[in-house]
Structure formats: C-alpha cells, structure tokens
Design brief:
It is globular, with a radius of gyration of 16 Å. Helix 1 packs across helix 2. The chain is an alpha+beta fold. Helices cover 29% and strands 28% of the residues. 25% of the residues are buried. The chain is built from five helices and seven strands. The two termini are 31 Å apart. The chain has a seven-stranded mixed beta sheet, with helices on both faces.
C-alpha cells in the first residue's frame, strides 16, 4: 500500500467511496454523501491539515502495483498544545479484510509517535465489530461505551471510544 496526501485529484475516488451505502452504513446516519457535499465538506476536511510539518492530516491509500484507490486514513490534532490525536479511516468495500486497515492504522500510530503525542483516540459505532477489532489489533483499548438516550434503536446509537497511551513508551527501559 502506498500513502500520499489527500488532494483534489483524489476527488472522484472519494466521491465514489462516500456514495457506497455499505461503506457509509455506520457513518452519517447511514446516508451516502452526494458529490456536492463531498466537494463542499469532505474534501476540505480531508485536506485541512495537509500543510503540517508533523505529518498529521489525511492520507490516500492506493495499491502499490496498480495505483488503484483503496480509501483514506486520517490522523488529526484534538488539542493545542498537541497531546492527543484522533485516528479514522474509510476503505472501499472491495478491499475489506485484506489487511489494508491495520497497515494504515499502524502507519497513523507511527506518525503519532513521531509527533510525540501522548494519546491516540478513535471512536466507532459499537455495532461496527470489524472496526472495533481493528482498534484493538492496533493497540487501542476500549475506554467507554456511550448509548444516546435520544436516538432509537439504542444499538444503532451506541458509540465505543478507544485510546492508546503513548506517554508510557518514553518511560520504558531500553
């Protein structure tokens, strides 16, 4: 897998990704994004941190041999001064289960280490078992499960928060 900064030439691939109902089933109330919304909201969000020297931001994933679009990975600052980052990802349905998710997530965690942050966090819907398993395989631990009382059904409204404490790594003996 090759990762490059997300940019405007990636827009058609991002539009197709966000139009897939299976990809979006746990995001944005399960609604695919329109091309207009991808142009107005998603692409600017994905490119918002591209100028950072610490490499935080969004990365497009492509197959090394073919250049085929796989999806994107994102690592964004949560606070200033920078102590915590949030990781997220979205992959094409056709590449689920091929290991690209863990490869990309581990790359995001390496970026976090290089940026010397203390904590990596992630949030997923509790019913999204595959993403929960990915978070755990990448070293993140379940911190909290939150169920909204205002949304039905309750299972669809449950959110799981994960965290990885990197601050202890620098204190471990060599």
């Amino acid at each position: 897998m090759a990762l490059t900064r997300t940019n405007w030439p990636d827009v058609d691939d991002v539009v197709a990704l966000n139009a897939d109902t299976d990809v979006m089933r746990y995001l944005d109330h399960g609604r695919p994004m329109t091309p207009a919304r991808v142009l107005a909201e998603e692409m600017p969000r994905l490119m918002a941190h591209n100028g950072r020297a610490d490499r935080l931001g969004s990365w497009v994933a492509r197959e090394r041999g073919t250049g085929n679009f796989l999806g994107w990975f994102m690592i964004t600052p949560v606070d200033e001064p920078l102590r915590t980052v949030e990781v997220a990802y979205r992959l094409r349905r056709g590449v689920w289960g091929l290991g690209y998710d863990i490869e990309g997530m581990l790359f995001m965690i390496e970026i976090a280490r290089a940026a010397q942050v203390s904590t990596v966090i992630a949030t997923t819907m509790t019913v999204d078992v595959a993403t929960r398993r990915l978070m755990e395989n990448a070293g993140l631990q379940l911190v909290e499960t939150f169920v909204s009382e205002t949304t039905a059904p309750a299972a669809a409204a449950a959110r799981s928060d994960y965290a990885l404490d990197l601050s202890m790594e620098s204190k471990l003996p060599a």
